[in-house]
Amino acid sequence: MDADFLLLRRMLDGDDQAIEAFVRKYYPKILQYCRLHIFDRGYAEDCTQETFARFFRTLPQYRHYGKAANYLYVIAGNLCRDHIRKSSELPLEELPEQSVNPMESLDLRMDIREALARLSPELRETAVLYFLQGEKQTEIARILGIGLPLVKYRIRRARELLKNCLEKEAVT
Q: Cβ distance 172 to 117 under 8 Å?
């Protein structure tokens, strides 16, 4: 039995510590996922909280097939898409800083953000999960409900488009 299964069993039994451990385990990843799709930090946090609220509301019906994170990503993805559809805003948030030089980091984040914004929603979703969230291709297929060959195609296509876009930005 995996750790998530045991945690889920304890949560179903009403163990508050198990619920807290579950949220602590997955909240940062789901928040990052939402922030990469929603421009406004507050809305991303709201979306993350709503993801967990929906998960806990449906917990008695939930069937564990290996990774609870996949189900959380599905819920979060649906909430993000709904928010984007309603607000028609640019569906990305600032990326985390990775450079010592703040201006260089800001330029890179803006370039990546613009490059991701140019991708189709399907390619963007796959690219965020693979390149920024570090999910495996088989997990992405499960999260998005598509076949593995399509995931591989989308990753390859997103890599090509992002590379071309970022190379153009570096030249200018």
A: no
Letter for the amino acid at 146? Answer: I
Question: So what's the pLDDT on residue 86?
Answer: 77
Do 144 and 111 form a contact (C-beta atoms < 8 A)?
Answer: no
CA distances (Å), origin 144, targets 15, 63, 132: 31, 17, 16
Q: Which three-class secondary structure state does DSSP give residue 61?
A: helix
Sign (positive or negative) of CA dihedral 65, 67, 71, 74: negative
The alpha carbon torsion through 95, 34, 48, 130 (nearest 10 deg) reads -100
Query: Would the pTM count as exceeding 0.70?
Result: no
Written as one letter, the residue type at 88 is S
**Contact 138/153 with Cβ under 8 angstroms?**
no
Q: Identity (one letter) of the amino acid at 81?
A: R
Q: Is the pLDDT of residue 99 over 60?
A: no
Q: Do residues 130 and 164 make contact, with C-beta atoms less than 8 angstroms apart?
A: no
Q: Where are the beta strands (DSSP E) in 43-169?
A: none
Q: Which domains does the chain have, with CATH numbers?
A: 1-93 (1.10.1740.10), 98-172 (1.10.10.10)
